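**User:**
My hope is that you can spare some time for a protein that puzzles me. This is the protein in question:
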Amino acid sequence: MRYAQGGGLAAERRAFREELRMRAAELFPQGWSNAQIAKELRISERSVQH
């Protein structure tokens, strides 16, 4: 189920997650692997998959 307001997350947390998404989006075209991005951003590889 999808939630209209970011799954019930506070605005700060949604902003933080969006920053991570944008950073990952910068790294993909540079040839970084999912594992490298996950390690750099300190998140799981599954979170990085695109």
Observations:
- Residues 36 and 45 are 9 Å apart (CA to CA).
